[in-house]
Amino acid sequence: MARNEITKSSTAEYFAKNLQQVGFSSPTKAVLTTLKEAVDNSLDACEEHGILPDLYVEIQKIGVGSSKNTDLVKVVVEDNGPGIEEKDLAKVYGEYLASSKFGKGQCSRGQQGIGISAATTWAQITNAKGVVVISKTKNMRKAIKAQVDVDIKSNTGVLKNKESLEWKKNHGVRVEFLMDGRIQLNGDGGLVTYMEGTVLLNPHLTVTFKLADNDKQTIERVANISPEIPESTLPHPHTFKLGEFITHATLFGKTSLSKFLKTGFSRVTDQPIKDFVKNGLPKNLLEKPITSLSQEEFKKVFTAVQNTELMAPSTKSVLTVGEESLSKSIARLGEIDFFAVVTRKPRICDFKPVVVEVALARFKNRNQEADGPVQLLRFANRVPLQFDKSGCAITWAIESVNWKSYGLQQPKDSLPTGPYVFAVSVVSPFIKFKNASKETIDASEELVAEIRLALIQAGQKLSRHINKEFKEADLERKLAHIEQFGPILVEKLAFLVGANEARRKRAEEGLKKILGRDSKELIGELEVATMKLTAQKAKDRKTMGEEEVETSSETAADLNESSGKENKPKGTKKK
Amino acid sequence: MATQSNGLLSIRNLKIDIPKEARILAERMLKDLENSKRPYLEAVKTSLDNSFYNSKVGYLTPGDKVVRTELNVSSVQKLARVVFILEILLRNLETSQINTKREIYYICKGLIKKGPKYKPLDFEDQDESDSIIDFVCDMLRVYREELNCFANDKGGQTYSQNLIVTETMADGTKATVDLSTLGTAPFMPKNKPQALKLKSKKKIDFALIVESEGTANTLVGMGFTRRNNCILMGAGGVPSNAVRGWCKLIQDELAIPMYFFGDLDAYTMQNIFRTLKAGSAASLIRNADFSAPDVKFLGVLPDDIKRYDLPFYKVKESDPAEARALKKAKDALENDPFFLDKKNKGVADICRWLLKEKVRCEQQSYFSVDPNDPIKTEKIILEKIKRGSYI
């Protein structure tokens, strides 16, 4: 009789069977995810080494795919990063969870070391060939070219067809995937949307890209400084659950509990440890090695830690693009009619440092429908999020703002409408995603509230542009009214009563006086709107002149007050 | 129903001289302009919040609220349009010319085409010119018909074996119509004023007004008017002025019981039955001549559903029209003086029941009671009248 054996499978085996979990759920998404993973790796590598990134991206359909309804698609990403040593190539491209960033508490784009290995697996599964990599570090005379495959059974990378070659670059990496896929250029999940998002949030990036039949395009950088990646930070104990807390402890080996608490977490020093004891942590456990703690004891420690007030974590570990760079960068997406950018001061949401940045813009000639929803670009750690919009904290926050107060149309509980681009970026070393493919930011109340505040600030700035525009149009329309309808009114009244020419003239004069008073009022209103806009522009320029991020410490209450009675955003709470 | 003056029939003895009133108004406006004062126009506010209902009067009457339009850069267009259309209407009165609203819309178009300086006044669609015509009526407190502007004839197909209608024409000649001699054709009231006198060959027991003209025709076709000494009329949905005025004439001249038979839903209660019985907020100034306060609601009543096991269905709140009707009914229960009056508690109770149960039951559901009996609906109607099952 056969016995059901319990077998253990490798990480690679798991992901190979569940690629849909990491962004390979359809041929279209496979192409986008591959591009995204390769670009993320390039940008992270450049930033780590202070190199201004120069990327080349090419995506072409080159034949028919092996699976039904797919094309054979080539995805090429080439960078001028530091390059990868030969010994690391197999690990980087062919091994799952081999990451230099995992759990490090840094705002890097990649975190776990899954994405690019998954792309290799996809290429391997659909086209029987992993990724072809060319890499050169500054210490290498010649570049190395090899094909990396994933050995799925053992979760290790395998180098094939290795050769060295002359390469024009001093250092960098070029990856080339051939895989089954479908090319979607436009729309929420499109490649063009991805490139635009990446360009917007990376002002220091120069990129040349050729996407399918579209023209080859080069977008130059608008910032000449590579963003400084803040120091990594230790996690705050209040962000942990009991199981995570115990697992975290196992990473520290045979150290004492007090040392584990002090070195494993941020904001835990001698004083908080005393407070832990006051709140129920048995003192005798403090010097006990954590390896000898029972589960019961861990629970006591954990409960005491959770019941103790601790300093909020430091916000130094987050990085921002900044209003100045964002303002310059947004102009790279097209000719701008007007825009508003807001970089919030880093804040703590759910005990994690978070910074939110918002750019709202109206472009000229962007072929957006006037009554369709605004184009929403979402970012997490500067990576565009292009799927599952409805469940994302960013979408929730936008829908909760009453955009009508700022002059935009908005169906109830929905995104506002109009030819606008809304770009919202959330940066945090500990972003909580809803899934492994990192498509949606989990919506906690605190995070949604913080994003909402950024949006309200940007909305207020935007409304000054819209208000001025509205007043201008109103004035123009009403002045035209006076000219067009005034004489008809007088003529018809005079006709009805059989008035003579002198009376008609007098009435016309009177009419001019009355309506002249009205137009003076309208001109006055327009002047006020113009002044407000000018003042805001001056403030913006001043803010941009400073190196620091926005120092505003406005709270929800301040914002509501400052928005005035008429503009007070009512905010509909998301059900 | 109508009186004669200047060779044209009119609905009532109008106490004001419309051209004179209009000229006084224009004179005042012109004078204001000469003095650099803002001229203004005032019209009766035709909305529920300016509607009053007294069950002894029987119809909705206007309160003191007015809509005041003062000249400013925003209203100059409206004022110019008002005097432009007023001139057309006054000319029609002077030359005894009549028009429909649609024709006036095109007359405006024609004048604007001929006089390019009037181009800015141009109406994009008929709604725009209609609202100006309505404003002129509410401003002068006159019926649209008194400005020689008439609506299309709609609804009111009437059948009877006993009714005789005598019409006095504008030239004084008389025409007599014996409805029993019309074969399968109905008598239809006009939306223009008619000088009609009614008499019956023998005692008429009741008048039945059916919401659906189709169902009214079925009942007649199956012999309803042959078997019953009655008047049977199809309302054709929301009753037009012609239907409302015609019902009022029957009520005043024949003094017979009048029953309305229609769907059991919020729309029928509010928009059809209430309008027939007490007029509407939109036509506040003319409800006196266009409502029949004695009409009773015969059904479909909520009790009928149970008694006759009538098929009914849930109101789809996702359907915007039905959701709107429910919202309107809720609003009516709170603000409509007709539904708030204790004399109409029965009708208000039906509305409350509809809001609670969120169901609707159509008049045609009576045909389900005994599908093999072609006159079952007639039998139920007669039984209900006999039993006093109406509100």
Give me a quick take on this structure.
The complex is a heterodimer of chains A (575) and B (391). Chain A has 575 residues and is an alpha+beta fold.
Classify the beta-strand content of chain A into a percent band.
15-25%
How are the strands ordered across the major sheet of chain A? 5-4-3-6-2-1-7-8
Tell me the helix content of chain A.
25-40%
CATH fold call of the largest domain in chain B: Dna Topoisomerase Vi A Subunit, Chain: A, domain 2
Roughly what is the average pLDDT of chain A, rounded to an integer?
A: 81
Task: Tell me what the structure shows.
- The complex is a heterodimer of chains A (575) and B (391).
- Chain A has three domains: 11-219, Heat Shock Protein 90, CATH 3.30.565; 237-306; 317-575, 2-Layer Sandwich (Ribosomal Protein S5, domain 2), CATH 3.30.230.10.
- The radius of gyration of chain A is 30 Å and the shape is globular.
- Helix content of chain A is 39%, strand content 18%.
- In chain A, the strands form two sheets. In chain A, strands 5-4-3-6-2-1-7-8 form an eight-stranded mixed β-sheet. In chain A, strands 9, 10, 11, 12, 13 and 14 form a six-stranded mixed β-sheet that branches.
- Chain A contains 15 helices and 14 strands.
- With 575 residues, chain A is of the alpha+beta class.
- Chain A starts with 10 loop residues before the first helix and ends in an 8-residue tail after the last helix.
- With 391 residues, chain B is of the alpha/beta class.
- The two termini of chain B are 27 Å apart.
- Chain B has helices spanning 18-34, 76-95, 101-114, 126-140, 213-221, 224-227, 241-254, 266-278, 302-307, 320-335, 337-340, 345-357, 376-387, and strands spanning 3-5, 8-10, 40-44, 51-53, 60-62, 66-70, 99-100, 149-150, 157-160, 163-168, 174-178, 195-200, 206-210, 230-234, 258-261, 296-299, 313-314, 359-360.
- Chain B has two domains: 3-150, Arc Repressor Mutant, subunit A; 157-387, Dna Topoisomerase Vi A Subunit, Chain: A, domain 2.
- In chain B, helix 2 (76-95) crosses helix 4.
- In chain B, the strands form seven sheets. A five-stranded mixed β-sheet of chain B has the order 9-14-13-15-16.
- Chain A binds chain B through residues 478-479, 481-482, 484-490, 492-497, 499, 503, 506-511, 513-515, 518-519, 522, and chain B through 22-23, 26-27, 29-30, 32-38, 71-74, 76-77, 79-80, 83-84, 86-87, 90, 117-118, 120-121.
